[in-house]
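Predict the structure of D-Ala-D-Ala carboxypeptidase.
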Amino acid sequence: MKKYILTLLIVCSYTATTTAQNINPRLIKIDSLLSHFYKNDKFMGSVAIQEKDEVIFKKAYGYADVKNGIEANTETQYKIGSITKMFTASIIFQLIEERKLSFDTKLSEYFPEIKNADSITIKNMLNHTSGIFNYTNDGAFMAYLGSKMSHKEMVEQIAAFEPAFKPGTTADYSNSNYLLLGYIIEQVTGKPYKDAVEKRIVKKLKLKNTDYFSKINPQQNEAFSYGFDGTNWIQQEEWNESVAGAAGALQSTPEDLTKFIRALFKGDIIKQKSLDEMLEMDFGYGKGIFIFPFGERKFYGHNGGIEEFTSILGYYPKEEFAISLIINGSNYDYNEILIGILSIYYKMPYKFPNLKTANVAPEILKGYEGLYSSPTIPLKITITYDTESNKLMAQATGQGAFPLNPVSDTEFTFDPAQITIIFKENGFTIKQGGMVNEFTRE
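Done. Here is the predicted structure for D-Ala-D-Ala carboxypeptidase.
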């Protein structure tokens, strides 16, 4: 459950979509963009876009099971990681509305063995101000992530850690908060967490493809997750659902997720007063929800990561607009993919990234290292060679370093900023936004 606001040349699966998609040039271009990423082995996954109560675009790209050639479709279920926390928080708010819990309920009423439990409230856990150490950050976590763990064993793991900080003094993202909130839901309702989700959200909203995951079965339209080794998609190790729990053990589809967040903001899950409380930010965290800025717009939602799945769900209340992207084949920055989708949707200037990469010998790359300056720009640019990634890195004065993608032995690009650098003897030409400047090695 990562904290976060993609060599098989195969034909992507195309699933029937709404009429709006077929006549809307923006949606056609979004499809072209995602096909561009997919065909260049950067992405496999699924997307849904919803305007008010209508899903106007949905499509899956790639495979649920590469080895057996099982294509994904818009009904394929993907693990959603920490977006699960939005479901968990919603149920906690329901229980508060039912007066079965309160924001001031102490963790010590349920798990007194957790350090500082008598000072940690439900509210602290919802907005990550509890100070409970994040169990997935522990080095030992990798040893048991695939094993079935009892509630008692997981609580013992968490109880063994020292607090990260005094409750309420700051915030730090911790999966431990939501794992424990799930256990509290079970104690209060007398039902397993997955049953509470089914009764209180899934059935209520008539979601077709959202449930608690178990071992992946592509024959039941469930997807594996994949990393890319430079040539092939490599299937990733599965987590056991017991170690993710209410912090990240749900699977769903983008369409179900956009319907869920739309219902949340319409008041179909919790009352408006509860929603207002959920959206109140403390130290940058809401209660089971984040803010994702896109230009002047503020999207509310959550992201998630588990195994090699990456997911994001966002809602812009002013326009009643929802978007969800779930990736099961990860070989590109998901944030850049989302920026591309939203840029096209909002008719902002956007150039498809160049995804072709040339193989350039390390000795050539090393030969470009140095400090470069220009008579027309006050910033200097340092070029370094990173041996681990076999890439050139560029860094302007006072700015962060960024990788350069080789198009040829002399031409390199950084697509997110639309930068092209062409090396020549003792210097380079840099192009960006219609401007051209010359740099010389010092």
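The chain has two domains: 1-354, 362-441.
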